[in-house]
Write a structure and sequence with these properties.
Rossmann fold; six-stranded parallel β-sheet; globular; 16% strand; 35% helix; alpha/beta
Length: 359
């Protein structure tokens, strides 16, 4: 059973640790929790434990004092070195003497760190797959996940604050970058002769089943390219994603500029922040656009739409399931080369884009 006794209103933590060990987009969707904690405990310092590769998502956040990280490459150094890294991390966390630890993760590692942190109040989720004495003992308060399937990921994260008496709604996501990030991005745009207002299109994902067809992306570029607006294509510095961008460019020559793999995530954020419109598939950049309040068109296939739709008001989702049957998200082989977004017509995306551009 989940333990959900309330914490006294007099509780005023001075040091808070938030734990989340997931992908880039997941980290961005923890920022409403940071905002909620900042509003409730303005005197407290807030630290975050995350995976090393996701540091860029939070490194410029003004309300985070310190980022602790786990490097997933530690295990490649051998068992002894790995243990030393983990022990050093735990020692660092214990020396911080946190008053409150909020564990948003579901890994055993996160529970060990939470349980041994020394914090008086330790909140986690009562996951069905973690019904063990150890998981219960690692946390002083466990929050039910029984309604998580009906909640957006942001709402799931915020529900962890229930024992603190903090509402599970009303907080926005945020993506921050530095002035130097934007200065660098401006220089790259100038080098690529992007001098007019521009649209950012991110057609790639690490998983092909989340992608639209290259031909339709090229058709979208051709339809939106004009004498008044430039088109910028972006992607991660992954060989498959870069190859997809190159193929799209061959289908619409001289219609778009590629900055694929040329920007860090904070630099990409600055690019998206200054764009007239962002169009992309279910990916971290899509969540960045929503967090930056850039007009956003998100193309979705067999993903859990309730949990992963863009969080915010200035966006529109075009879902392949409105045009053709889709398999259950839980049944997807992530290695498949089937592009389930193919059911989405080009004309509908062009129409949606023009509705934003004509505003």
């Amino acid at each position: 059973m989940a333990t959900l006794q309330s914490i006294p209103a007099s509780f005023a933590p001075q040091k808070i640790l938030l734990i989340k060990l997931r992908h880039h987009g997941d980290m961005l969707l923890t920022t409403p929790v940071i905002e909620a904690l900042r509003q409730r405990y303005p005197q407290a310092s807030i630290d975050v434990l995350l995976y090393k590769e996701t540091l860029p998502m939070l490194q410029a956040h003004p309300h985070i004092r310190q980022l602790h990280f786990i490097d997933r490459k530690w295990k490649q150094e051998g068992a002894l070195a790995h243990i030393r890294h983990e022990a050093a991390l735990l020692g660092t966390i214990r020396r911080q003497r946190y008053d409150l630890v909020i564990n948003l993760a579901d890994q055993w590692r996160s529970a060990i760190i939470t349980g041994l942190s020394g914090a008086r109040v330790r909140i986690g989720f009562a996951y069905n797959k973690r019904r063990s004495l150890f998981w219960r003992k690692a946390h002083t308060h466990l929050v039910s996940t029984s309604n998580h399937s009906q909640l957006h990921t942001v709402e799931q994260n915020l529900s962890a604050l229930q024992p603190l008496g903090i509402a599970s709604s009303g907080f926005s996501a945020a993506m921050y970058y530095s002035d130097s990030d934007w200065q660098h991005t401006q220089a790259v745009l100038t080098q690529n002769q992007v001098t007019r207002p521009y649209i950012v299109i991110q057609p790639t994902s690490r998983w092909l089943f989340k992608c639209w067809e290259d031909e339709k992306v090229a058709g979208l570029v051709s339809a939106l390219a004009s004498g008044e607006t430039d088109i910028v294509l972006t992607a991660a510095p992954d060989k498959k994603e870069l190859a997809m961008i190159e193929h799209i460019l061959t289908l619409c020559p001289n219609k778009a500029v590629s900055l694929a793999g040329k920007l860090t995530l904070p630099q990409l954020a600055s690019l998206i922040d200054h764009a007239r419109l962002f169009i992309g598939v279910d990916s971290a950049p899509m969540h960045m656009a929503a967090a930056l309040n850039t007009s956003c068109i998100a193309l979705f296939g067999p993903t859990k739409l309730t949990q992963w739709r863009p969080w915010g008001e200035n966006n529109r989702v075009i879902w392949a399931g409105d045009y053709a049957p889709l398999p259950s998200p839980d049944s997807i082989n992530t290695g498949t080369e089937t592009r389930y977004l193919s059911a989405i017509p080009l004309d509908d995306v062009v129409k949606a884009a023009r509705s934003y551009l004509d505003e």
